[in-house]
Amino acid sequence: MKPLAVSLGDPAGVGPEIIAAAWADRDKLGLPPFVVIGGSQIMASAAGHADIPGIDGPDGDYRPARPDEQSAQIALASLEQAIAGTLAGHFSGVVTAPVAKSAIAQVSPAFIGQTELLADSCGLGRESAVMMLAGPSLKTVPLTVHCAIADVPDLISQDLIIHRTHIVARALQADFGIAAPRIAIAGLNPHAGEDGRMGREEIDIIAPAIAQLRGEGIDATGPHPADTLFAPHKRSTYDAVIAMYHDQALVPLKALDFDEGVNITLGLPIVRTSPDHGTAFDIAGQGIARPDAMIAAIRMAGEVASRRANG
Protein backbone atom coordinates (compact mmCIF):
# COMPACT_ATOMS: atom_id res chain seq x y z
CA MET A 1 0.00 0.00 0.00
CA LYS A 2 1.21 3.50 -0.78
CA PRO A 3 2.06 5.66 2.25
CA LEU A 4 -0.41 8.02 3.85
CA ALA A 5 0.19 11.75 3.53
CA VAL A 6 0.15 13.56 6.89
CA SER A 7 -0.32 17.32 6.80
CA LEU A 8 1.44 19.44 9.44
CA GLY A 9 -1.55 21.23 10.84
CA ASP A 10 -0.70 24.57 12.41
CA PRO A 11 3.00 24.17 13.26
CA ALA A 12 2.54 26.35 16.34
CA GLY A 13 0.10 23.79 17.72
CA VAL A 14 0.58 20.21 18.89
CA GLY A 15 0.52 18.75 15.36
CA PRO A 16 4.30 18.36 14.87
CA GLU A 17 4.89 16.75 18.25
CA ILE A 18 2.02 14.25 18.03
CA ILE A 19 3.10 13.31 14.49
CA ALA A 20 6.63 12.82 15.80
CA ALA A 21 5.34 10.67 18.67
CA ALA A 22 3.32 8.53 16.28
CA TRP A 23 6.40 8.06 14.10
CA ALA A 24 8.56 7.07 17.08
CA ASP A 25 6.12 4.29 18.02
CA ARG A 26 5.10 3.25 14.49
CA ASP A 27 6.75 -0.19 14.57
CA LYS A 28 5.59 -1.06 18.07
CA LEU A 29 2.03 -0.03 17.19
CA GLY A 30 2.03 -1.56 13.71
CA LEU A 31 1.04 1.70 12.01
CA PRO A 32 0.79 1.91 8.23
CA PRO A 33 3.58 3.81 6.42
CA PHE A 34 3.20 7.58 6.28
CA VAL A 35 5.11 10.66 5.19
CA VAL A 36 4.82 14.26 6.39
CA ILE A 37 4.02 16.96 3.85
CA GLY A 38 6.47 19.84 4.23
CA GLY A 39 7.96 21.15 7.44
CA SER A 40 11.22 19.21 7.43
CA GLN A 41 12.87 21.80 9.66
CA ILE A 42 9.79 22.03 11.89
CA MET A 43 9.54 18.27 12.25
CA ALA A 44 13.25 17.87 12.96
CA SER A 45 12.96 20.33 15.83
CA ALA A 46 9.74 18.84 17.16
CA ALA A 47 11.15 15.30 17.01
CA GLY A 48 14.53 16.07 18.51
CA HIS A 49 16.14 15.74 15.09
CA ALA A 50 14.82 12.23 14.50
CA ASP A 51 14.70 11.30 10.81
CA ILE A 52 11.01 11.41 9.84
CA PRO A 53 10.33 10.87 6.13
CA GLY A 54 8.73 13.81 4.43
CA ILE A 55 7.89 15.45 1.14
CA ASP A 56 9.36 18.83 0.28
CA GLY A 57 6.90 21.56 1.00
CA PRO A 58 6.17 24.59 3.17
CA ASP A 59 8.58 25.05 6.05
CA GLY A 60 9.76 27.52 8.67
CA ASP A 61 10.99 27.82 12.21
CA TYR A 62 9.41 25.67 14.90
CA ARG A 63 7.74 28.10 17.29
CA PRO A 64 5.25 26.19 19.43
CA ALA A 65 2.47 28.15 21.10
CA ARG A 66 3.23 31.18 18.91
CA PRO A 67 0.71 31.10 16.06
CA ASP A 68 0.99 33.82 13.48
CA GLU A 69 0.28 34.49 9.82
CA GLN A 70 3.24 32.38 8.70
CA SER A 71 2.12 29.34 10.69
CA ALA A 72 -1.37 29.63 9.18
CA GLN A 73 0.11 29.84 5.67
CA ILE A 74 2.27 26.76 6.31
CA ALA A 75 -0.75 24.84 7.63
CA LEU A 76 -2.85 25.66 4.57
CA ALA A 77 -0.07 24.94 2.07
CA SER A 78 0.72 21.56 3.68
CA LEU A 79 -2.97 20.64 3.68
CA GLU A 80 -3.46 21.61 0.03
CA GLN A 81 -0.34 19.71 -1.02
CA ALA A 82 -1.41 16.58 0.89
CA ILE A 83 -4.86 16.64 -0.71
CA ALA A 84 -3.48 17.22 -4.21
CA GLY A 85 -0.94 14.41 -3.84
CA THR A 86 -3.60 12.00 -2.63
CA LEU A 87 -5.97 12.92 -5.46
CA ALA A 88 -3.09 12.35 -7.89
CA GLY A 89 -2.64 8.82 -6.53
CA HIS A 90 0.72 9.35 -4.85
CA PHE A 91 -0.68 8.50 -1.40
CA SER A 92 -3.28 6.03 -0.14
CA GLY A 93 -5.00 8.67 1.98
CA VAL A 94 -4.51 11.90 3.87
CA VAL A 95 -4.33 12.43 7.64
CA THR A 96 -4.72 16.06 8.63
CA ALA A 97 -3.24 17.47 11.83
CA PRO A 98 -5.28 20.18 13.61
CA VAL A 99 -5.49 23.71 12.21
CA ALA A 100 -6.85 26.98 13.57
CA LYS A 101 -9.75 27.78 11.22
CA SER A 102 -9.89 31.47 12.14
CA ALA A 103 -6.14 31.88 11.56
CA ILE A 104 -6.27 30.33 8.08
CA ALA A 105 -9.32 32.43 7.26
CA GLN A 106 -7.17 35.50 7.86
CA VAL A 107 -4.83 34.46 5.04
CA SER A 108 -7.48 32.72 2.91
CA PRO A 109 -10.92 34.26 3.55
CA ALA A 110 -12.77 31.50 1.66
CA PHE A 111 -11.52 28.85 4.10
CA ILE A 112 -14.25 27.44 6.38
CA GLY A 113 -12.68 24.19 7.53
CA GLN A 114 -10.63 21.22 6.39
CA THR A 115 -13.70 19.12 5.54
CA GLU A 116 -15.12 21.86 3.33
CA LEU A 117 -11.75 22.31 1.58
CA LEU A 118 -11.64 18.57 0.92
CA ALA A 119 -15.11 18.65 -0.62
CA ASP A 120 -14.16 21.59 -2.85
CA SER A 121 -10.87 19.94 -3.87
CA CYS A 122 -12.69 16.73 -4.79
CA GLY A 123 -15.28 18.62 -6.85
CA LEU A 124 -18.14 17.69 -4.53
CA GLY A 125 -20.93 19.73 -3.03
CA ARG A 126 -20.22 20.39 0.62
CA GLU A 127 -23.36 18.49 1.64
CA SER A 128 -21.74 15.35 0.19
CA ALA A 129 -18.64 15.50 2.42
CA VAL A 130 -19.89 14.06 5.68
CA MET A 131 -17.98 14.47 8.93
CA MET A 132 -18.06 11.39 11.13
CA LEU A 133 -16.48 11.30 14.59
CA ALA A 134 -15.42 7.75 15.34
CA GLY A 135 -13.99 6.21 18.49
CA PRO A 136 -13.93 2.85 20.23
CA SER A 137 -17.30 3.52 21.89
CA LEU A 138 -19.26 5.53 19.36
CA LYS A 139 -19.62 6.82 15.79
CA THR A 140 -21.54 10.08 15.36
CA VAL A 141 -22.33 12.34 12.41
CA PRO A 142 -23.52 15.94 12.80
CA LEU A 143 -26.13 16.78 10.14
CA THR A 144 -25.26 20.47 10.40
CA VAL A 145 -21.73 21.43 11.36
CA HIS A 146 -20.15 24.89 11.51
CA CYS A 147 -23.18 27.09 12.02
CA ALA A 148 -24.95 28.90 14.83
CA ILE A 149 -27.46 26.93 16.89
CA ALA A 150 -30.09 29.52 15.93
CA ASP A 151 -29.65 28.55 12.27
CA VAL A 152 -30.02 24.79 12.72
CA PRO A 153 -33.85 24.49 12.45
CA ASP A 154 -33.82 26.22 9.07
CA LEU A 155 -30.91 24.12 7.78
CA ILE A 156 -32.23 20.64 8.46
CA SER A 157 -34.46 19.13 5.79
CA GLN A 158 -35.80 15.76 4.71
CA ASP A 159 -33.55 15.81 1.64
CA LEU A 160 -30.42 16.53 3.69
CA ILE A 161 -31.20 13.78 6.20
CA ILE A 162 -31.85 11.26 3.43
CA HIS A 163 -28.80 12.28 1.39
CA ARG A 164 -26.36 12.12 4.28
CA THR A 165 -27.82 8.93 5.74
CA HIS A 166 -27.23 7.17 2.42
CA ILE A 167 -23.60 8.36 2.47
CA VAL A 168 -23.18 7.14 6.04
CA ALA A 169 -24.73 3.74 5.26
CA ARG A 170 -22.47 3.20 2.23
CA ALA A 171 -19.38 4.23 4.21
CA LEU A 172 -20.21 1.93 7.11
CA GLN A 173 -20.35 -0.91 4.62
CA ALA A 174 -17.38 -0.05 2.41
CA ASP A 175 -15.02 1.64 4.87
CA PHE A 176 -15.88 -0.10 8.16
CA GLY A 177 -16.96 -3.52 6.90
CA ILE A 178 -20.45 -3.42 8.49
CA ALA A 179 -22.66 -5.46 6.17
CA ALA A 180 -26.04 -4.23 7.45
CA PRO A 181 -25.56 -0.83 9.12
CA ARG A 182 -27.98 0.30 11.84
CA ILE A 183 -28.32 4.07 11.95
CA ALA A 184 -30.01 5.94 14.80
CA ILE A 185 -31.25 9.44 13.99
CA ALA A 186 -31.58 11.91 16.84
CA GLY A 187 -34.34 14.40 17.33
CA LEU A 188 -33.65 18.12 17.36
CA ASN A 189 -35.70 19.19 20.36
CA PRO A 190 -35.73 18.01 23.99
CA HIS A 191 -37.50 14.65 24.33
CA ALA A 192 -37.55 14.50 20.49
CA GLY A 193 -40.21 17.21 20.51
CA GLU A 194 -42.59 15.35 22.86
CA ASP A 195 -45.30 14.89 20.22
CA GLY A 196 -44.99 18.46 19.00
CA ARG A 197 -45.18 20.20 22.35
CA MET A 198 -41.51 21.24 22.11
CA GLY A 199 -41.24 21.76 18.37
CA ARG A 200 -42.51 20.12 15.20
CA GLU A 201 -39.23 19.35 13.41
CA GLU A 202 -39.44 15.69 14.46
CA ILE A 203 -43.00 15.36 13.11
CA ASP A 204 -42.65 17.44 9.95
CA ILE A 205 -39.05 16.72 8.87
CA ILE A 206 -37.15 14.00 10.72
CA ALA A 207 -39.78 11.24 11.01
CA PRO A 208 -40.84 11.47 7.34
CA ALA A 209 -37.18 11.27 6.28
CA ILE A 210 -36.71 8.15 8.42
CA ALA A 211 -39.84 6.58 6.93
CA GLN A 212 -38.51 7.16 3.42
CA LEU A 213 -35.10 5.74 4.33
CA ARG A 214 -36.70 2.61 5.77
CA GLY A 215 -38.76 2.27 2.62
CA GLU A 216 -35.51 2.33 0.66
CA GLY A 217 -34.05 -0.48 2.73
CA ILE A 218 -31.92 1.57 5.15
CA ASP A 219 -32.11 0.39 8.78
CA ALA A 220 -32.74 3.86 10.20
CA THR A 221 -34.56 4.46 13.47
CA GLY A 222 -35.79 7.49 15.37
CA PRO A 223 -36.22 10.33 15.97
CA HIS A 224 -34.55 9.43 19.27
CA PRO A 225 -34.36 11.76 22.29
CA ALA A 226 -30.70 12.80 22.38
CA ASP A 227 -30.49 12.79 26.18
CA THR A 228 -30.84 8.98 26.32
CA LEU A 229 -29.42 7.98 22.94
CA PHE A 230 -25.82 7.75 24.13
CA ALA A 231 -26.43 5.70 27.29
CA PRO A 232 -24.48 2.40 27.40
CA HIS A 233 -27.54 0.18 26.83
CA LYS A 234 -28.54 2.27 23.80
CA ARG A 235 -25.14 2.27 22.13
CA SER A 236 -25.39 -1.46 21.46
CA THR A 237 -28.49 -0.94 19.32
CA TYR A 238 -26.90 1.03 16.49
CA ASP A 239 -23.66 1.38 14.51
CA ALA A 240 -23.77 5.16 14.08
CA VAL A 241 -25.83 8.16 15.14
CA ILE A 242 -26.85 11.05 12.93
CA ALA A 243 -27.24 14.08 15.18
CA MET A 244 -28.89 17.31 14.19
CA TYR A 245 -26.09 19.72 15.11
CA HIS A 246 -22.40 19.92 15.97
CA ASP A 247 -22.38 19.65 19.77
CA GLN A 248 -25.14 17.05 19.86
CA ALA A 249 -22.70 14.76 18.00
CA LEU A 250 -19.35 15.87 19.41
CA VAL A 251 -20.06 16.20 23.13
CA PRO A 252 -20.80 12.48 23.68
CA LEU A 253 -17.94 11.39 21.41
CA LYS A 254 -15.42 13.59 23.23
CA ALA A 255 -16.77 12.59 26.62
CA LEU A 256 -16.37 8.90 25.81
CA ASP A 257 -13.41 8.77 23.42
CA PHE A 258 -11.53 12.07 23.63
CA ASP A 259 -8.04 10.57 23.44
CA GLU A 260 -8.92 8.17 20.63
CA GLY A 261 -11.53 10.11 18.66
CA VAL A 262 -11.02 10.32 14.91
CA ASN A 263 -12.64 12.71 12.46
CA ILE A 264 -13.17 10.82 9.20
CA THR A 265 -14.72 12.42 6.12
CA LEU A 266 -17.24 10.14 4.42
CA GLY A 267 -18.37 10.43 0.82
CA LEU A 268 -15.01 11.44 -0.67
CA PRO A 269 -13.15 9.62 -3.44
CA ILE A 270 -10.07 9.70 -1.18
CA VAL A 271 -9.52 8.61 2.41
CA ARG A 272 -9.22 11.40 4.97
CA THR A 273 -8.94 11.23 8.75
CA SER A 274 -7.85 13.63 11.47
CA PRO A 275 -7.47 13.52 15.25
CA ASP A 276 -10.66 14.82 16.82
CA HIS A 277 -9.09 17.65 18.78
CA GLY A 278 -7.75 21.10 18.12
CA THR A 279 -4.36 22.78 17.93
CA ALA A 280 -4.00 23.06 21.73
CA PHE A 281 -1.73 26.09 21.47
CA ASP A 282 -1.77 26.38 25.27
CA ILE A 283 0.21 23.14 25.72
CA ALA A 284 2.18 23.04 22.46
CA GLY A 285 5.88 22.35 22.85
CA GLN A 286 5.60 21.26 26.49
CA GLY A 287 5.85 17.53 25.77
CA ILE A 288 2.50 16.75 27.39
CA ALA A 289 0.25 16.47 24.33
CA ARG A 290 -1.09 12.93 23.99
CA PRO A 291 -0.61 11.40 20.53
CA ASP A 292 -3.37 8.80 20.92
CA ALA A 293 -5.88 10.48 18.59
CA MET A 294 -3.23 11.06 15.90
CA ILE A 295 -2.19 7.41 16.20
CA ALA A 296 -5.85 6.36 15.93
CA ALA A 297 -6.32 8.62 12.88
CA ILE A 298 -3.30 7.13 11.11
CA ARG A 299 -4.42 3.60 11.95
CA MET A 300 -7.99 4.21 10.77
CA ALA A 301 -6.83 5.83 7.52
CA GLY A 302 -4.67 2.80 6.79
CA GLU A 303 -7.51 0.38 7.55
CA VAL A 304 -10.01 2.23 5.38
CA ALA A 305 -7.52 2.59 2.52
CA SER A 306 -6.80 -1.14 2.69
CA ARG A 307 -10.51 -2.02 2.62
CA ARG A 308 -11.07 0.22 -0.38
CA ALA A 309 -8.06 -1.22 -2.21
CA ASN A 310 -9.24 -4.78 -1.56
CA GLY A 311 -12.94 -4.10 -2.06
Describe this structure in words.
This protein has 311 residues and is of the alpha/beta class. It folds into 2 domains: 1-126 and 268-311, Isopropylmalate Dehydrogenase (3-Layer(aba) Sandwich), CATH 3.40.718; 130-267, Isopropylmalate Dehydrogenase (3-Layer(aba) Sandwich), CATH 3.40.718.10. It has helices at residues 15-24, 26-29, 40-46, 69-87, 101-107, 114-121, 152-155, 158-174, 201-215, 226-229, 232-235, 246-257, 292-310; strands spanning 4-7, 34-37, 54-55, 94-96, 130-134, 139-142, 182-186, 219-224, 240-243, 262-266, 272-275. It has an 11-stranded mixed sheet, sandwiched between helices. The longest helix is centred in the first third of the chain and has 19 residues, at 69-87. It is globular and about 60 Å long. The protein starts with a strand and ends with a helix. The model has no long low-confidence stretch (mean pLDDT 96).
Summarize the model shown.
This protein is α/β, with parallel strands linked by helices and 311 residues long. The protein is built from 13 helices and eleven strands.
Features:
Isopropylmalate Dehydrogenase; 42% helix; 11 strands; 311 residues; alpha/beta; 13 helices; single chain; eleven-stranded mixed β-sheet; globular
CATH-derived topology of the largest domain: Isopropylmalate Dehydrogenase
Going across the biggest sheet, name each strand in turn. 3-2-1-4-11-10-5-6-9-7-8
Average pLDDT metric: 96
CATH 4th-level superfamily of the largest domain: Isopropylmalate Dehydrogenase
**CATH class bucket of the largest domain:** Alpha Beta
Low-confidence stretches: none
Approximate helicity band:
40-55%
What Rg is obtained from the alpha carbons, in whole angstroms?
Answer: 20 Å
Structural domain count = 2
Biggest sheet details: 11 strands, mixed
What is the multimeric organization of the chains shown? single chain
Query: In the CATH classification, which architecture of the largest domain applies?
Result: 3-Layer(aba) Sandwich
SS class: alpha/beta
- Our count of helices gives 13
Number of strands: 11
Distance between the termini: 14 Å
Task: Please tell me what the overall shape is.
Answer: globular
Kindly estimate the percentage of residues that lie in beta strands according to DSSP. Answer: 5-15%
Order of helices and strands: EHHEHEHEHHEEHHEHEHHEHEEH
